[in-house]
Amino acid sequence: MVLVKHSERTVRKPCRSCGRSDLYWAHDTDRIYHKACPRCEVTGSFVLIERDGSRHNCRNTTDGTGDPAPDMELDGPTEDEDREAPSVPAPVSPDVQTALGMLVGALTPQVDRAEIEAMVKEAVANVVFPTRTVVERANGERKEFTGATHHKLGDVIISLMAGEHVLMVGPAGTGKSTIAEQAAEGLGLKSYSISLSPQTPASQLLGYMQATGDYVPSLFREAYEHGGLFHFDEMDNAHPSVLAVMNAALANGHMAFPDQMVKRHPDFRAVASANTYGRGATRSYVGRQAIDAATLDRFSVETIEVDETLENELCHSTGLEIDQVEQVLTFVRGLRANAEAHSMPVVISPRASVGMCRLLAAGRSWESAVQARVRRGMGDTEWNKING
Q1: Which of 29, 121, 294, 341 has its CA at a distance of 20 to 30 angstroms from the CA of residue 127?
Q2: What fold characterizes domain 134-301?
Q3: Which residue ranges does the record annotate as region Disordered (predicted)?
Q4: Contact predicate 173/349, CB 8 Å
């Protein structure tokens, strides 16, 4: 008897009698049933063989002789089986399977359902996702901001939609000016802004009359009369006369400008930002003014703190390598925590981390980036304390 192996792949369909699938098709050249195989060019009927090349002696035969069932020899592989049947590994004995199961059981900790659920909940609770803000306006229009936004943007917009004016208080570099611009965009209003200082005159808000008798309007007048969101930046740095004008504008539904009385537009909104809560200078902001209680009473106050998820996204958007971004964030946040712990008059805002990432991405060395964006002339004593 000569058996010629038909394929190097095991059968796709198992032996119909015993069910084994770790077999191969072969041609028995002693049994010539039909023309030559188009693949092997061997003349001989199909039979099943073992891995060692011997004929498959199926024990579940119809006649009990140990030979394959007679009709098995007539069924060669189909075209798909001939082409696609995958090889299978040699069968694993029951003893080996038992030993492997015991080994896996010994190495795998037994965790019940409650423990798994607790671990999943803990993992999910520690994941912080960047805030995406979507605004649905009164007219049914929707405004969706692309990219991450500060988590307080939604609160600011809701307060403005409710008819409130908003005072945002927080450290420098936390995104207050950006929130004001985005709030105007979300509400579909024009955005106006002025940065206040002790030298800012009241005419910057009221406008003024020229010698010719012509009135020169201000941006504040434009927003007040025709609608828009006006941002008073650095409100706690303003001269009291300017704050008095602001108070009068927000207190009533009309305002006296140099040329005439003007009615406040229904879509006028005011947003102010400050580094303090209006109670005067602090250790970090020594030049800030105390704000009159009547002026503060016109605003809803929102505390704007560092949004670390937004800081993450801004740093990664600089194009710096991911591992370097993580190094910068760890370093800057460590300095920030030390400064707060020691009550140091030092501001280490997200501008420091984003700025460092930009400088490093541009090719600056680590030391030069630290000097330019974090240390910035700080003395050795202070630096050793904050960097300790």
Answers
A1: 341
A2: Rossmann fold (3.40.50)
A3: 55-92
A4: yes
